[in-house]
Write a structure and sequence with these properties.
Blueprint (H helix, E strand, L loop, with lengths): L1 H54 L11 E4 L5 H13 L5 E4 L25 E4 L6 H14 L4 E7 L3 H11 L3 E7 L5 H20 L4
Parallel strand pairs: 1-2, 1-4, 2-3, 4-5
Length: 210
């Protein structure tokens, strides 16, 4: 009888505790769900906002360009597009931004000595200083001082098109149009480019031209 009485007496005390624990669990779950939904919304917003900047940037029009400029790294896809534009318009002169790895800068694969196009007539390969997109705009400024160009088509890769256009408009006084080549990239590569290009945009906005 004593045991039964204790059990009966304890039941009313344990019920409120169990109910309170269940309520706290539901509150925690609702908070986790709200945070998850908010993060998903932010992620989708970032992806959508980046589409016209990094995935589908407007391509420049190379019509009437009288200089082709391949900026670094001078990967083969970029050089191939440059060669195509040259061949389509009376063998336009081409400027290629190279790494200068022979002096300890960058990837040796992008040194002038390793790029076949650098040995072709009408092709100039130089290392920008600094070795950045803004430095490449400065290199173009120096180049056209002795090789006048009314319009230059700048070739990079797709995620870099918008930032290249912004930097050249900021740091170069001449007429430039920007084209990008598509590169096979994984989801991780795209995520990295979203983060990298966004941070680089902020840097370009805050940093003066060299």
């Amino acid at each position: 009888m004593t045991t039964s009485s204790l059990t009966e007496a304890g039941a009313p005390e344990s019920q409120p505790i169990a109910i309170a624990q269940a309520q706290r669990g539901r509150v925690r779950w609702r908070r986790v769900r709200r945070v998850s939904v908010a993060l998903a919304v932010v992620f989708v917003a970032i992806v959508v906002a980046g589409l016209p900047l990094y995935v589908f940037p407007p391509q420049g029009d190379p019509t009437d360009a009288n200089l082709v400029y391949v900026i670094g790294p001078p990967q083969q896809q970029r050089i191939d597009l440059g060669e195509t534009l040259r061949d389509a318009d009376s063998n336009l002169p081409m400027l290629i931004s190279v790494s200068g790895s022979a002096k300890g800068h960058g990837d040796r694969a992008f040194d002038a000595s390793q790029i076949d196009a650098c040995g072709e007539p009408g092709v100039t390969c130089k290392r920008p200083d600094p070795f950045t997109t803004a430095g490449e705009a400065k290199l173009l400024t120096d180049y056209v001082a002795s090789h006048p160009s009314d319009k230059t088509v700048v070739i990079t890769f797709t995620p870099h098109v918008a930032r290249t256009r912004y930097i050249f408009e900021k740091c170069y006084g001449g007429d430039v149009t920007v084209m990008g080549v598509d590169t096979n990239m994984s989801l991780y590569d795209w995520a990295f480019q979203y983060a990298y290009q966004t941070a680089a945009f902020v840097k370009a906005w805050l940093t003066p031209c060299p």
